[in-house]
Write a structure and sequence with these properties.
Number of domains: 3
Strand order of the largest sheet: 9-8-7-14-13-12-11-10
CATH superfamily of the largest domain: Glycosidases
Low-confidence stretches: 1-25
Number of strands: 14
Bound molecules: 2-acetamido-2-deoxy-beta-D-glucopyranose
Number of helices: 18
Radius of gyration: 25 Å
Amino acid sequence: MARALSLSLLLAFLAIGSCIAIEVTDHIDLWPMPTLVSHGTQRLYVSKDITMSMEGSSYSDEKGILKDTFQRVVDLMKLNHAVDGVNPSSFVLTGVNVVVHSPEDELKFGVDESYNLSVPTTGYPLQAQIEAQTVFGALHALQTFSQLCYFDFTSRLIELISAPWTISDTPRFPYRGLLIDTSRHYLPVTVIKKVIDTMTYSKLNVLHWHIVDAQSFPIEIPSYPKLWNGSYSFSERYTTSDAIDIVRYAENRGVNVMAEIDVPGHALSWGVGYPSLWPSDSCKEPLDVSNNFSFGVIDGILSDFSKVFKFKFVHLGGDEVNTSCWTGTPHIKKWLDDNHMNVSDAYRYFVLRSQKIAISHGYDVINWEETFNNFGDKLDRRTVVHNWLEADVAPKVVAAGLRCIVSNQDKWYLDHLDATWEGFYTNEPLKDIDDPDQQRLVIGGEVCMWGEQIDASDIEQTIWPRAAAAAERLWTPIEKLAEDPRLVTSRLARFRCLLNQRGVAAAPLAGYGRTAPYEPGPCVRQ
Ligand SMILES: *[C@@H]1O[C@H](CO)[C@@H](O)[C@H](O)[C@H]1NC(C)=O
Ligand SMILES: *[C@@H]1O[C@H](CO)[C@@H](O)[C@H](O)[C@H]1NC(C)=O
Ligand SMILES: *[C@@H]1O[C@H](CO)[C@@H](O)[C@H](O)[C@H]1NC(C)=O
Ligand SMILES: *[C@@H]1O[C@H](CO)[C@@H](O)[C@H](O)[C@H]1NC(C)=O
Ligand SMILES: *[C@@H]1O[C@H](CO)[C@@H](O)[C@H](O)[C@H]1NC(C)=O
């Protein structure tokens, strides 16, 4: 009680003195906050014709990843305003020089994403400098640069205040994910691409594509062409070319796409095209464990996936398996008895056999945490366990020597509309993990946009800005994160308004997920 009181007194003090106390800690308009930032007080003008050069780079940008991103970033800075002021004679930033040390442009898990960015106030021509090991670090640098720049209504130019800037930045976790679910509601390709674009603004780097589930099977699988008979309609589908296009679009922006098929539960839609995958016509999931064809189909899907989804990991689900259809279906019951298995054994058998298939196609496997909770010691040692239930499983997973992704539903499920941005911000993936070797096994975290209650009409305001709050937790060094989220409210509010200006339907911060604006007033106060 005494502690709560003193905390609220402190906050009251901060609120009264907000112009001073909060401004000093929170005036830097960057989200997520970089590792190291210092700056001065000089105003610069960004030339209307700002150009990018790559002097000193070992990287040749054959795919145009850097050039295209630079062009997009310049457009973002303009925000559709006509930049029609006259460049002054001094303090005009005419270019950005990008030095990338590695010629590699393959987006691999754990790729070096660090960068240095400096914006000087002296030198001719006046140029911002970016230095990065890989092009993907340089992409983050350009995003940071874009957040320093804004359209000024007096000069009618793009300006950049508080120069010179010196920023040195590197992510805290290599896996910073967002899940989308295209089975419960179909999401058009354009919507998925816009989600990917917005991820880059807050430096998230893995799109977990929960493609299929019980309700619909929207994606084309050339090896088993009747699987997408389980789609909702002929138009609510993705061709293989669509999937390739989405993966390339994401990779060119530094975002990996991680595909999921969730087996053996959550797979009812598979049987629309291939009814023998169902235990019976009256009991349709989990997939028939006794039927070799089930594994043939999984093999076909993962074989096709391996040509499209090049990320190191594939997700095989494995959660919420209700085995009553197995014991309740005579031919499966007989198979269990013949093989001396009970349903727990059969569930394990299914998951482990599926893991072997995925590994044979070159993947490392991610499984939801029930697999670990039931037979953790039997999982392939390369398995990454994906937490979703309680927050206490990650310490157990890493103590067992396996890798972990944190997504505890009470804090990081975006479909929980009562989960606040403050909860997203303060959810700590390394909670109760003190051993540095075990900490390294937590490869990151992921916020989950399950699709039961969202579709193309409201996905953006349900994801943003709450996913961005988690993005700072996953990017910024822990010692720079505010223990009290109220200390970052105004900075996140400004980032939310920036998302709106960029055409992203990010919801107001006040209240819970997806709320309407509170009352007439400026953007940052909603
Ligand atoms: C950033 O600058 C520091 C100090 O000069 C240097 O040690 C580091 O390697 C640079 N980082 C990158 C990504 O170039
Ligand atoms: C699957 O779709 C194809 C093409 O529309 C159709 O010819 C076939 O009958 C469908 N099969 C099943 C089992 O629904
Ligand atoms: C079972 O399916 C696998 C492919 O997953 C195949 O290699 C094997 O020959 C099949 N076994 C039987 C008994 O049909
Ligand atoms: C499991 O499935 C059976 C048959 O579909 C159903 O009657 C039962 O309620 C389910 N159990 C749970 C815990 O969902
Ligand atoms: C299934 O059998 C295993 C031994 O093979 C046993 O440890 C386990 O408790 C059994 N599970 C159930 C649900 O009966």
